[in-house]
Every structure is written in structure tokens, then in C-alpha cells.
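Researcher: I'd like a structural prediction for the single chain below. Treat it as a standalone chain; there are no partners to consider.
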Amino acid sequence: MVNTMKGVIIAAGEGSRFGNITYNKPKPLIELDGKPIIEWVMDALMSGGVDSFVIVVGYLGNKIIKKLGENYNEADITFVNNKNWKLGNLTSLYSARELVNEEFILSMSDHLFDPAIVRDLIKVKSQTTVLLGVDRKYQQTEDDMKVLIDSHKHILNIGKKIFGNFVDIGLFKLKPKIFEYSKGAIDENKFQLYQSILKAAKNKDAMAYDISRRFWIDIDTPEELESYYVQKFPEFIKKRKWD
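Model: Treating it as a single chain, here is the predicted structure.
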């Protein structure tokens, strides 16, 4: 029996690092091998066990809604329009709170990943509100979301400016209590997703799942879109192996 779960996708941002490319097109609709990035994300989530979606839109959100419609490959889609998307991505997660009342998978709309990661996240039994996919990365950059975990895989700290032994891959398994942590952060004028994860971590309610160096990548720039592994991703998905 295949375990299934709802997936929440944050697709509200402007994608400003793509410059003029996103002036009239939201970043999730930028194409890779003739298919919008967000559809690659949805395919990977569905291959891993997600069977329905809540998609949070903001910038040019109507174009995403028009493109995807009410279902995708037999998976139902519910859209949420986040009018506060400019404040930060935590507002996008929080805007989905009334549509999620069970454990769910959270993904960004511009991250590519091996579907096996999703499958394992769903299967792993976790008592904590947060189970965050992490990867060990030795050459970290300023833009990486670093994660510090202890020997028992509890998250001790998370942020771009901290020292961390892992990085956040943008895939989470979350329990609905995350919305309480999110409200607490928003009430303190903290609008970034990692700030709600940090609140859970301080309550010893967040753990990390090491993806063991399996493939993932976030597409933040045109250069990353054109990079070797991104361009090879469709072939990897088809063959389930790299060259």
C-alpha cells in the first residue's frame, strides 16, 4: 500500500533574480524542457506519494491558476491567493492554514528533487511538528539556508547567517501545529518560513531528515536553470539514473 499525503506548494514569489523574464511570467511557469518548473515539482511530489495539492499564489497568481486548472494528472488542486506575499514566504504557508488539518508535505515551487526523497519523508515516523529534509554541503554559500543539528537529528538552529552542518533542501513534512508557530512568528513581525521552523526547534519540536546526498537543486537564477544537472533532470526522471 502506497502512503499518500497532501502537498502544499509555495508559488507566490516574484522571482526577481530572473529579471525581465518574470516581468510578465511568474517564475513557476518558466519552462524546463518544454514544461513549467512547477509541473516538474508536482510530478516529483506525486511520484513520491502526494495525491492532492494546495498551491499558494501571489505574484501573477492568476496565470498559474489558469495554467494548472483545478486538477493536475487526476490530483485535485486548491489555490490560495496570498495578498501579503511581498512580506515573506511564511505568510504564504500561513495562508494555507484553513485547508490543511493533517500532516502534509511542504515544497517550494522552484526546487527539483528525486521523488524518492518525498517517498521517504512520507514513510518516516516522526513525533515532531517539523521534519525537514537536509543535505550535507561542505561548500556552503551565503544564500544557503544552513541547519545545525545534533547527534539525535534534532534541529538546534536554522538561518542563512549561522554555522550549520547541513543545508535546508526546501522539502518538509509538517503537522498542523506549524501554523501555531507561524502565527507566533508573524505576531513578532517575522515573515520568513525559517523563523517558524526556528520556533519549533526552540521547543524541541523539529527534526532533520538527511537525504543522504540524493539529488535536489533550487533554481534561483537563469544560470542555475541552464546548469548541467537542471538540464539533465528530465532525463534523470525518465531513466531514474544519471549519466
